[in-house]
């Protein structure tokens, strides 16, 4: 019971922190991560909020799981429903800084929060996010996960840029930093089942 409670706390804390990371990076106006370039582009072109498009895109991506025979978990459904809601909440709460130092602080904190949050919600072991599951599902069909991830992210980045999403130094920083940050935080935050007692 205690282990389940810890998993749930870590999952939902991670999803909230992920939404905060998105809001910080968007508010910096120095460049979003590839998926949020896409979400922001959709918001600017068609209306609705960035968070609403995060939810819609996550639900659409989950439909692609069906032919890939991926099975969602509680963490997957929670990711689809809550990351966008938290992103909108924090975008509403956060100021929009003008000073360059403050904008850079928002950007760096946003990228760091994204890496830590990824470790939290994946480490909880309750199911991957919809975009992560799409990548692992395609990789399971015999494709390199590096090639699959790069292809997907370049595609949404290009589409988002054409729609008017913000591309900049933050986009590059996120792309360079998220792998190493996840490499550090995932093992540190992985919740492992208790070892069986020995006689």
TrEMBL record:
<keyword id="KW-0812">Transmembrane</keyword>
<keyword id="KW-1133">Transmembrane helix</keyword>
<feature type="transmembrane region" description="Helical">
    <location>
        <begin position="7"/>
        <end position="26"/>
    </location>
</feature>
<dbReference type="Pfam" id="PF19700">
    <property type="entry name" value="DUF6198"/>
</dbReference>
<dbReference type="InterPro" id="IPR038750">
    <property type="entry name" value="YczE/YyaS-like"/>
</dbReference>
<feature type="transmembrane region" description="Helical">
    <location>
        <begin position="154"/>
        <end position="177"/>
    </location>
</feature>
<feature type="transmembrane region" description="Helical">
    <location>
        <begin position="46"/>
        <end position="66"/>
    </location>
</feature>
<protein>
    <recommendedName>
        <fullName>YitT family protein</fullName>
    </recommendedName>
</protein>
<feature type="transmembrane region" description="Helical">
    <location>
        <begin position="106"/>
        <end position="126"/>
    </location>
</feature>
<keyword id="KW-0472">Membrane</keyword>
<feature type="transmembrane region" description="Helical">
    <location>
        <begin position="73"/>
        <end position="94"/>
    </location>
</feature>
């Amino acid at each position: 019971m205690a282990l389940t409670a810890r998993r749930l706390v870590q999952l939902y804390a991670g999803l909230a922190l992920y939404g905060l990371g998105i809001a910080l990076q968007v508010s910096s106006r120095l460049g979003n991560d590839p998926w949020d370039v896409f979400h922001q582009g959709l918001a600017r072109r068609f209306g609705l909020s960035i968070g609403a498009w995060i939810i819609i895109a996550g639900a659409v991506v989950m439909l692609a799981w069906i032919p890939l025979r991926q099975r969602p978990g509680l963490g997957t459904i929670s990711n689809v429903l809550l990351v966008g809601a938290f992103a909108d909440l924090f975008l509403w709460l956060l100021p929009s800084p003008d000073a360059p130092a403050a904008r850079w602080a928002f950007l760096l904190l946003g990228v760091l929060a994204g890496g830590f949050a990824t470790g939290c919600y994946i480490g909880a072991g309750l199911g991957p996010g919809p975009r992560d599951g799409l990548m692992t599902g395609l990789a399971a069909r015999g494709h390199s996960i590096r090639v699959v991830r790069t292809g997907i992210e370049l595609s949404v980045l290009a589409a988002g840029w054409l729609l008017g999403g913000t591309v900049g130094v933050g986009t590059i920083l996120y792309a360079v930093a998220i792998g190493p940050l996840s490499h550090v935080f995932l093992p540190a935050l992985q919740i492992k089942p208790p070892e069986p007692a020995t006689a």
